Amino acid sequence: MKHNTKQTSEGRDSRELDGLTLLGNQGTAYAFSYAPEVLEHFENKHQGRDYFVKFNCPEFTSLCPITGQPDFATIYISYIPDVRMVESKSLKLYLFSFRNHGDFHEDCMNIIMNDLIKLMDPRYIEVWGKFTPRGGISIDPYCNWGRPGTKYEDMAQHRLMNHDLYPEKVDNR
């Protein structure tokens, strides 16, 4: 049986993109409160290879749960995919949904990581928030996870212990 499928400009069979509702949608709605349900995934075409996918999200905003004051950060998300990968527009909308979400910096980073683990079941993932200072102090929570019982679990432990071995030069905050 022959399927009538259309190739996308990126070389993907249109059936591979089934379930992606946000990419290319001109009528995008932005959620103003925490919305993990907006996250979408697609199939990794290179499952036999380890490689990193990295996102740099410089406009993250959430609210302090005590004062209601806004907190701003650059969020770095890196992961080694297995079968599923996060679709980037859905990730952008998901991160935007934290705009009116009140949680501490550390909680936000762990929530993001947990939601992405639930969505993708990656081999490895890390989420690092670089928050701008408020009250003269900045907070940079880092969390990671490696699939239990695999080399990625060992990798997670090693990267956690060495994640800040070479601190970056901070000149933008």
Give a structural overview.
- There is one protein chain.
- With 173 residues, the chain is of the alpha+beta class.
- It is built from three helices and six strands.
- It has a domain of 112 residues: GTP Cyclohydrolase I, domain 2, CATH 3.30.1130.10.
- The chain is globular and about 45 Å long.
- It starts with 40 loop residues before the first strand and ends in an 11-residue tail after the last helix.
- The N terminus is likely disordered.
Features:
GTP Cyclohydrolase I, domain 2, 6 strands, disordered N terminus, two-stranded antiparallel sheet, 173 residues, queuosine biosynthesis, globular, 24% strand, NADPH_dep_7-cyano-7-deazaG_red, NADPH-dependent 7-cyano-7-deazaguanine reductase, preQ1 synthase activity, GTP-CH-I_C/QueF, 21% helix, four-stranded antiparallel β-sheet
